[in-house]
Amino acid sequence: MNRYHRLGARLFSSWIERLRDLRNRKVSDPAFRRWATRFALTRPIARRQAKALFDITAGFVYSQVLSACVRVDLFEILQPGPADTHAIAQRINLPLEGSQRLLKAAAALELVECRGDGRYALGPLGAALVGNAGVKAMIQHHDILYDDLRDPLALLAGRTDAQLKQYWAYAGGERSRSGETWRHTDYTRLMAASQAFVTSEILGAYSFARHRRLLDVGGGDGTFLIAAGQAAPQLELTLFDLPPVAAIARQRILAAGMAGRARAFAGSFLADDLPPGADLVTLNRVLHDHDDAGALSVLGKIRDAMAPRGTLLIAEPMAGTRGARASGDAYFGFYLLAMGQGRPRTTVEIKRMLDSVGFSRVREVRTSTPLIARIIAAQRPAD
Predict the structure, then answer these.
(1) What is the per-residue pLDDT for 197?
(2) pTM reported for the whole predicted model
(3) Are 333 and 320 in contact (CB under 8 A)?
(4) Average of pLDDT values for 80-89?
(5) For residue 280, which of 159, 211, 237, 366 is within the disulfide window of CB 3.0 to 4.6 Å?
(6) CB-hemisphere CA count at 13 Å for 360?
(7) Residue-range domain boundaries for the chain
(8) Domain 164-379, architecture per CATH
(9) For 59-129, CATH number?
(10) Would you say 321 and 370 are in contact if contact means Cβ atoms under 8 Å apart?
(11) Angle, to 10 degrees, between the axis of helix 59-71 and the axis of helix 43-57?
(12) In the prediction, which pLDDT does 172 show?
């Protein structure tokens, strides 16, 4: 880009900033807000902004309505078809008045639909949750997060001992490498329950057919490894995770009938060397769980362990994703803060990290639902 283009870009950026500053001055003026709600051309914009601000304010209440519906299995109760309020109240074991209030709230959020005569049926969002164990597990898990967010300023200032830091055992530093299996079972089960969506995104976006050996780093209980092995029968399968988690993975691999082609290695990828020789390595919702130093360390270990011209796939929700910025920077930003380590990163930041540890041909692989996961692929250069 020559200096005239750079000058033009700076002028355009400055002009845009002045327009935004003008907008903010107007919107913060009560007299202008009153005028905007009455003027025909600006009234729809003012109403959308008011609704968006109210939805942010009321978001906790909405999430608690959803949590209540999940806890009483409301969506499964309505799956066979509409039911009247009295029957629903008996099934969910709530008083009639409380059931009516919950059903009206759920209908307002499109979780259920009122069909008239006191009957309710599944709504479009509730129908999507039927049989969706992963999302329901996360909804129930959020009780811990909401406790940690009770005082967000204390959390931001580091003045609170967040429960999530205890829940995710590997966030405990050296202590996380202990052999206490109970400390790892709950989060491993949660990751497995929510893995189906990410697995579908990865296998739908990238073909494993040309690879011969897969190493899944931080692979949990083997849910993704087993699915990848079923999709690509030629793959030799390897998993690496903390000793208590690797033990769980071995049991699942055995139950899946893959003991002859799959192995689970135990260790800490922050301290130990990785199994060598894989020509495909996956980091599935792992990198954003670690601070920059840890993330760079594991990327360097992967580069050293993998075969020349091998491919690394990083799959996770990423910051700055168009249409999903709230998920990346707001949700994961605070979730990982409560967890005690890690941060959401943009694709640019991840690409820069990959470049710094010696990967080449870094590129993004398009996924169907970037909100769930985006993928960055990188190659280890030939020796």
Answers:
(1) 82
(2) 0.84
(3) no
(4) 95
(5) 211
(6) 7
(7) 3-57, 59-129, 164-379
(8) 3-Layer(aba) Sandwich (3.40)
(9) 1.10.10.10
(10) yes
(11) 60
(12) 56
